[in-house]
Amino acid sequence: MPPPPRIALTSGEPAGIGPELCLAAARSSLPVELVCLADRGLLAERASQLGWPIRLRDYNPNARQQHEPNTLTVLHHSLAAPSKPGQLDKRNGRYVLDLLDRAIKGTVSGEFAAIVTAPVHKGVINDAGVPFTGHTEYLAEHTGGATPVMMLAAPGMRVALATTHLPLKDVSGAITIDSLLQTATIMDTDLKKWWGISAPRIAVCGLNPHAGEGGYLGREELDVISPAIKLMREHGIQANGPLPADTAFVPQMLDQCDAVLAMYHDQGLPVIKHAGFERAVNITLGIPILRTSVDHGTALDLAGTGRADPRSLMAAIELAGQISTRTT
Predict the structure, then answer these.
(1) What is the spatial distance between Cα 203 and Cα 20, in angstroms, rounded to a whole number?
(2) Sheet harboring 201-205: ordered strands across?
(3) What confidence score (pLDDT) does residue 165 get?
(4) How do residues 82-141 score in pLDDT, each as one tens digit?
(5) Do residues 285 and 153 make contact, with C-beta atoms less than 8 angstroms apart?
(6) What is the pLDDT of residue 279?
(7) Residue 274 contacts by C-beta under 8 Å, 6 or more apart in sequence?
(8) What is the predicted pLDDT for the residue at 328?
(9) Domains (ranges, CATH) in the chain?
(10) Beta bridge partners of 151
């Protein structure tokens, strides 16, 4: 039997729930060799606060270290400043990105099969003087992925975004025929690559209520989205739409597609989070490495309490392991 895939787990914002989610994952049996990138002292302190008897062992890149319940393999990176649960400190903004940089380097080189990321706090990274809009864009910039696509996957549903972290007023101008074709092409390619779907079916949402109502509620569907879908089909992509977003997610429609392409962040993500919150997984398409993540934020109010739900992180680890095993 080949060894299980080695997965890099970045612990994210130290003041948030990321470190304890990593510890919570370590308490269970896992089908991967998990390597947590974090400050070892921070993990030890959180485990002690929570009363979790978890053994921390040093990462050895030259030896396979099978995961054992209540054991966490740690690739140590030092905090810039002491961290307390719920209290952001911009001095640790660079630390968060150092974890991600090391994981990216290791995954590009083949040291790791995939990256799983715990949540980060965009604001504190920007306060530290580093422009940062999110994991998705950062990963693309540092791996040569020209156009990253953000997709969330939950049981029975996959939702990708045509635009990500934009103000709503800027969405219409950001959607073009070319950008939609490029996004759908990436979806088609990676649904085949990561999930093994031979001919992915993509449901494309409209932008406006009722998908524009024939132009009476906006022309984006007529001028941009419909021409893009026509091009998708000409390129061999099974695309359907534009569909009114208020009916695109009903069970009858979801049964007829493998993924939904939503036009903006809050058109698609509230639906999948309602359907599968704490079970949904964020996966970045369009980059040359595999990355999955939790579907939630840093939850500063829960940090250090032990009440944070680890199911989304567990699902992200399991999906990364499944895809890595299938594609190797």
Answers:
(1) 37
(2) 55-58, 71-76, 33-38, 6-10, 114-117, 291-293, 281-285, 149-154, 157-161, 259-262, 201-205, 238-243
(3) 83
(4) 999 999 999 999 999 999 999 999 999 999 999 999 999 999 999 999 999 889 889 999
(5) no
(6) 82
(7) none
(8) 64
(9) 1-145+287-328 (3.40.718.10), 147-285 (3.40.718.10)
(10) 160, 283
User: What is the Cα–Cα distance from 191 to 285, expressed in whole angstroms?
Assistant: 9
pLDDT value at position 59? 97
121 and 88 Cβ atoms separated by less than 8 Å: yes
CB atoms within 10 A of CB 60: 11
Quick one: tokens of 138?
């950062």
Distance CA 203, CA 206 (A): 10
Q: What is the pLDDT of residue 293?
A: 95
Above 90 in pLDDT, residue 266? yes
Percentages of the chain per state (helix, strand, coil), in multiples of 5: 45, 20, 40
What DSSP assignment string belongs to 130-170?
-----HHHHHHHHHT-SS-EEEEEETTEEEEESS-S--GGG
pLDDT digits (tens, 9 = 90+) for 207-233: 999 999 999 999 999 999 999 999 999
Tell me the C-alpha to C-alpha distance, in Å, between residue 88 and each of 78, 203, 295: 16, 40, 21
What does the angle CA 140 – CA 141 – CA 147 come to, to the nearest 5 degrees? 45
The number of C-alpha atoms within 13 Å of 308 and in the hemisphere containing its C-beta is: 33
256 neighbors 201 (Cβ within 8 angstroms): yes
Could you tell me the pLDDT band of residue 164, with boundaries at 50, 70 and 90? confident
What span, in angstroms and rounded, lies between the C-alpha atoms of 76 and 67?
Answer: 17
Are residues 42 and 14 in contact, defined by beta-carbon separation less than 8 angstroms? yes
Q: What is the pTM of this model?
A: 0.91
